Amino acid sequence: MTGTGGGGTSSGVTAAETEEASADTAAARDGGAGSGAGHARPGMAAVRAERAGLGVAAARAEGTGRNLLTDNPALYEARFPDPGRLAGRWAEDCLDRHGAGGRVLDMGCGVGRDAARLHEAGRSVTGADVSEAMLEYARVHHPGPRYVRADLHGFDFGASVSDAVVCLDSSLLYCHTNAQLDGFLASCRRALAPGGLIVAEMRNGAYFLGRTDLLDTPTVSGFEWQGVSYRSTTHVFVDRTAQLLRRKRVWTSDDAAAPVEQHSAWRLVFPLELRHFLGTHGFEVLELHDGPGPRTEPAWREGRLPGATTDGDRLHLVARRLNTTH
Predict the structure, then answer these.
(1) Hey, which bits of the chain come out as E strands?
(2) How far is CA 246 from each of CA 157, 231, 275, rounded to the nearest angstrom?
(3) Among residues of the chain, what percentage have pLDDT more than 90?
(4) How many whole angstroms separate alpha carbon 259 and alpha carbon 234?
(5) Which residues lie across from 103 on neighbouring strands?
(6) What's the pTM?
(7) Do 84 and 114 contact (CB within 8 A), yes or no?
(8) The pairing of beta strand 103-107 with beta strand 124-129
């Protein structure tokens, strides 16, 4: 889900593309399937797994074609490199500025890059994700944190076991319903010690009020990895009834693998709505702004302080757990 290295193309990768890759983990968890399982040729995930030494049979056992990127974390990192660990550095800056303690829970840790960056900063980090493939990769390639499987809709690591919960790359927005968002915030409150922080970065639902620049034209991108050329075509649209930003992406490659169609979605949360949810669960909002952040243009860098508006396409949140009874 969060965090996205080597061997891949770093130029031309947008924040939206990076986030779209993260969304595929949630789609796989909720049963979203790619095409290709019924074809004579193995799907893309099987082909990639075979090249990684896992074998086609193993890939089929794990769910052939379900998810090109999250089934193949090495490919994920190659496509979305972050050699400067910008998201992890931004999160560490937030934690440092607000005096957070050393125990951190990274929900939606993905391949583990941001969790490892926080560990390198001297924190005791637990990285949690719903994707076993991502967790296995993180343990090998980004060691240091403890990596565990958990669903952000509801998790229980015990009471007051963490000083901060970090949730990057719109992982929080995989809570599509009010009940799921309540479950996430209730779980955060249980896990956090009094005064503990939530640090999150996500899309801004308010950006889509009257704006269509991210919706009007399909996004087409391509890259090469291990001698294979990949191409993705992405369509994004607003589901107003469900208050979701939905995405359909079709992957093709030049190695005769069947196309893979994937569907995912993010909750469109508005700034005042988010404040209300946090207040209901006993959190005080310390920061809520549209940048600078790790996915903004220009991007955050050390020394840049938070803004005061919530009009841009990203939201950045720091909230503190109050010592009250809920």
Answers:
(1) 103-107, 124-129, 146-149, 162-167, 192-203, 219-225, 228-239, 244-253, 260-267, 283-289, 314-321
(2) 31, 20, 23
(3) 72
(4) 13
(5) 124
(6) 0.84
(7) no
(8) parallel
Instruction: Identify the band that residue 80 occupies on the pLDDT scale cut at 50, 70 and 90.
Output: confident
Q: Could you give the CA distance from residue 234 to residue 252 in angstroms, rounded to a whole number?
A: 12
Q: In what order do the strands lie in the sheet with 260-267?
A: 219-225, 228-239, 244-253, 260-267
Determine the Cα–Cα distance for residues 185 and 198; give it in Å rounded to an integer: 9
37, 253, 133, 19 alpha-carbon torsion, rounded to 10°: -120
The residue type found at 308 is A
β partners of residue 107: 128
What number of other Cβ atoms are within 10 A of residue 212's Cβ? 10
Q: Give the span between the Cα atoms of 113 and 281, in whole angstroms.
A: 29
DSSP 92-159: HHHHHHTT--SEEEEET-TTSHHHHHHHHTT-EEEEEES-HHHHHHHHHHS-SSEEEE-BTTB--S-T
**Alpha carbon of 122 to those of 110, 160, 168: distances in Å?**
20, 20, 19
Name the 3-class secondary structure at 30: coil
2 vs 129: CA distance, rounded Å: 9
Q: Report pLDDT digits (tens) over 239-270.
A: 999 999 999 999 999 999 999 899 999 999 99
**Average pLDDT of the residues in 222-229:** 91
Question: What gap in Å lies between CA 215 and CA 232, rounded to an integer?
Answer: 16
Residue 69 pLDDT: 79
Confidence tier at 303 by pLDDT (50, 70, 90): very high
Helix-helix angle 86-97:113-120, to 10 degrees: 50
Helix (H) or strand (E) holding 28: helix 15-29
- Whether omega for the bond prior to residue 298 falls within 30 degrees of 0, making it cis, is yes
Residue 63 binned pLDDT confidence (cut-offs 50, 70, 90) = very low
